[in-house]
Design brief:
The chain is mainly alpha-helical and about 150 residues long. It has 6 helices and 2 strands. It starts with a helix and ends in a 12-residue tail after the last helix.
Length: about 150
Amino acid sequence: MKKIVILCFIFSICIFSGASLFAGNVAKSPEFATLDSIANKYEAVIFTHAKHASLAGRCGSCHHQHGNSESLPCKECHSLTRADFEKSVSQNFMACKNCHAGIDRTNPGMPGLKVAYHQTCFQCHRGMGNIGLDPKGCTEICHAKKEQIIGKK
């Protein structure tokens, strides 16, 4: 009986040690992200990633991954569980700007980075203040408009 208890104890330690080693290898998402792709007109948006991730519940609510630039059916990416998404992050998850950098005449359905950000944000933020109703709404909550300096471009 003692041997069984000792073997179970050793087995448990091995299992928990392996799980903690695996958990240490998962890429951690940033608590904050700075979105500054239109920094020439607006101040950067300080995005609280941790807060948004907890509210969204699933990484696939905001993020998608197309692997080797191949288009997949929507459900292949947008049904990602948190564990699947974290696994993809640890395997060189692509930055949004890799695909959404600018207007691509060969792929007219692909939104540029600014449009992709706004489409994603508007899913939840439309109607907060004047967001989505008036361009000024974006400066009320997210973007601070840069001061126009007379004589400088």
